[in-house]
Target: Molybdopterin converting factor small subunit
Amino acid sequence: MRISVSIPSLLRDCTSGKVVFELEAQTLREAVELLPVMYPLLRVHLYTESGQLRQHVLLFYNDDNLAWLDNLDLPLREGDRLVVFQAVSGG
Model:
């Protein structure tokens, strides 16, 4: 299934200038795992060296934070969205 992926404009240099693009996957888990495969430069911004999602990165599947989901093996449907939010702090 083809879904829409949105990333923050701060990361567009990792995706050849794209802030919205499509990704082909059957499950949510597959889509999440495919992001750094399609765009290897995203890996360092999304994941720690041990492969965990960075604390300041939030991934949303439609309106649900992935951290709230018990299972990522959800089948994707037409119109689904994956959104990457990157928290920014400063003073």
Observations:
- The chain has two helices and five strands.
- Helices lie at 28-38, 43-46.
